[in-house]
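Let us work through a complete example step by step.
Step 1: write down the sequence.
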Amino acid sequence: MKSTSILVLCIERFAKGFRRPVVVFVLLLGATLLAGGCATRGRPQPVDDARWMQYAFSRQNDDLTVWITLPGDEQTKEHFGIPLQQEHIQPLWLRVVNRSKRPYWLLPAFTDPAYYSSAEVSHHFRGILTSKDVERRQEVRIEEVAFDYYIPPGSDQSGFIYTVLHDGSQVYSIALLSTGSLQRFNFLVPTERLRTDYGQLAAAWRVDSTNTTMGGSTDMTDLAIFRRNLEAWPAHTSDATSKAAGDPINFFITAPWGVVFPALISVGWDETEMLNTSTAFRTFGAFFSGENYRHSPVSPLFVYGRRQDAAFQKVRENINARNHLRLWLMPMKYGGQPVWAGQISRDIGVRLTTHTLWLTTHEIDPDVDGARWTLVQDLIKAQCVAQIGFVAGGTSATPIAPRSNLTGDKYFTDGLRVVLFLSPTPMGADEIQILPWSEPPRGGLSNPGDYLKPFDAGPAQP
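Step 2: predict the structure and record it as tokens.
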């Protein structure tokens, strides 16, 4: 640390006598020197598979068994001698036992389309002060512990895939290719970097314990009875007092949390952080800076006096344009499976408001049915949809006579709610069954020319 301080002092004094471009160059050079010096610290430790196995997730299919684990920052520094996570690189340890009589090939692009090669990882830690000998040892270390993509018959091998670091939970797919066979092993790895708003709901996936907070659970097996129960569910969310109507409840999902969560994460939905002073100020700053705050908190909405059990969002170009999704675990089951009520909307901007403590709110796309259909498409892409149906029970509104949510945003809808029955095993789009239930109105909600009229031509319904 003393030598580092002296180096910084020398750079500062040297830079004072030069013009700004030279100063910038000198400072960049100094940063490079410091980075190079830091990168050489630490001696890598040998990889001990037994130690990784203590924390590993495992899956088995036929003659293949797969384990993965994600080392934390300290484990990574210990085993590589360099802090990979500081460069947004997450090493993923993988072990594959192939008991079959045919070879397999690993397809790392299925695990992470933006995965790093060994040379890319090494390049991140080059510095002018790093000796060629140290640099070479780092390159050899990173390469020698990388997973070999070829997996011979009867082999047991392990190593690392270098993926992109994400703060949130991730679904990692280990894809193994052989003649006439593509075996995929999907792993959900919960985050330890964020304090998410779904709290204990995700802990050990105990959905039943959450169900008891809603006064028990009714398990139905008759599809017609189940449909009638869904239609009787409230049309809208509300505020904490249950007096003011908010955004519409526009979908239901039938599946355990362990299926819903990985499906959403796999198609780009992120968990949201708890709303507190720190995350609120970061959101406020992102509003002005355009920061892509993927896990920004969402405001609470309520159903029967209960705030959402979980919330997700999908950021598009920045924090001002994202999709919001909230879930409530319902006091009913269908065929032994939990049922979730949900609200989804598409944010198209951020505006100032007096309706919230933080004086900002997201403005939603008034076509909430379009957001509803976006969710359907996402879950079809996740290959988990077995059945789709539409049920009544919502309150319809047209573009020229819209409704308003809690913050004054207007919206229109046909009043239907989509019901999605999810499967724990992959389902192709050609396998999905469309239930003969309610259908959206023919011709849509408006007549030709309605969208050309001022949006506030008619009074907004409360």
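Step 3: interpret the result. The two ends are 64 Å apart (CA to CA).
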